[in-house]
Automatic annotation (TrEMBL):
Cellular compartment(s): Membrane
Keyword field: Membrane, Transmembrane, Transmembrane helix
Protein name: WGS project CCBQ000000000 data, contig 00099
Cellular component aspect of the GO annotation: endoplasmic reticulum; membrane
Membrane topology: Multi-pass membrane protein
A single GO BP: membrane organization
Coiled-coil ranges (or none): none
UniProt KW Methyltransferase keyword: no
Biased composition (Low complexity): 10-34
Length: 296
């Protein structure tokens, strides 16, 4: 603070230090920071705990945590346990979104139009699938690996975006480090969101192909040895098939990707193995018949 004598009274004038009060004394300080005060992290969390969005974020974050454990698991029981935890987190996260829709009157559930709503709302599609897969797993069905992949990818970006906007600003660290971390997260989201979204769509397509191969085998298994494991494995396979058809009907990108891959396969067969083209067309016809029979 710079000052000089004014009218000989000993009061000081200030430059950029605030206004004078009635006695000529100054309010303020030239070194006062222009930054807004940041609430303590504990106070922020107490506030966030009252908001559904925080539990939505927590669900996505725990989904990523359990997915890492799932990928590092080798024992069957450990794989199954972490798979169930992933599905539970997804149920909670999408359930909160749907609850907010209902609460804000953007969505009204009625049995008469529930089927139409499932066809139109992707959040409802993922919510329904995760409930079906979790239920079938809890009742003894096999773990359908890779069915969780696309939902985990979406969880990654949901969690990162919420963390950047609602958690990072209140973490006690230097503003330079905060800014750097925020910029890196923003860069990652802006530059990789599209490619990761495509990866999610591809993973759903690959999983559907695997489901198509598993279905006849599982049907035979149910007929040969009818038990809870074979029955609920079959139901989980069928649930994913219905989900995929819902996604295919709703998502233009899914349809485009399917057509592109189909064209790539046909070009490859026609140029490298033309003698197999008739067999490919037969398989393609059977796949179309099966797909058309899926009620969705």
């Amino acid at each position: 603070m710079s000052g000089r004598s004014g009218n000989g009274s000993g009061n000081h004038n200030t430059n950029n230090a605030g206004a004078k009060n009635g006695n000529g004394k100054t309010n303020g300080n030239s070194n006062r920071s222009n930054q807004r005060p940041v609430a303590p992290l504990s106070a922020v969390f107490r506030t966030k705990l009252k908001q559904p969005q925080f539990y939505w974020f927590l669900g996505h974050t725990l989904c990523l945590y359990y997915y890492i454990q799932y990928m590092l698991s080798f024992r069957e029981q450990s794989v199954k346990t972490n798979y169930r935890k992933i599905m539970l987190c997804i149920v909670i996260s999408y359930g909160i979104v749907l609850h907010q829709y209902v609460k804000s009157k953007q969505l009204t559930f009625q049995w008469s139009n529930l089927k139409q709503q499932i066809r139109q709302l992707d959040n409802l599609q993922y919510f329904t699938l995760s409930i079906a897969l979790l239920t079938c797993s809890l009742l003894g069905g096999k773990t359908l690996t890779q069915t969780e992949s696309s939902m985990v990818i979406y969880s990654l970006f949901h969690a990162l975006n919420y963390f950047k906007e609602n958690v990072l600003p209140f973490i006690p660290m230097s503003s330079i480090l905060k800014g750097s971390l925020s910029n890196k997260i923003s860069y990652f989201i802006a530059n990789f969101n599209g490619s990761f979204f495509n990866a999610a769509v591809i993973s759903e397509l690959v999983t559907m192909c695997k489901v198509c191969l598993m279905l006849p085998i599982q049907l035979v298994s149910v007929l040969v040895s009818f038990n809870a494991k074979s029955l609920f494995t079959l139901l989980s396979i069928w649930a994913y098939a219905i989900f995929f058809k819902l996604r295919y009907n709703q998502s233009e990108q899914m349809r485009l990707l399917c057509n592109q891959n189909q064209q790539v396969i046909e070009n490859f067969i026609s140029t490298r193995f033309p003698m197999l083209m008739d067999k490919w067309l037969g398989i393609k016809h059977l796949a179309k018949v099966f797909f058309d029979r899926i009620l969705a």
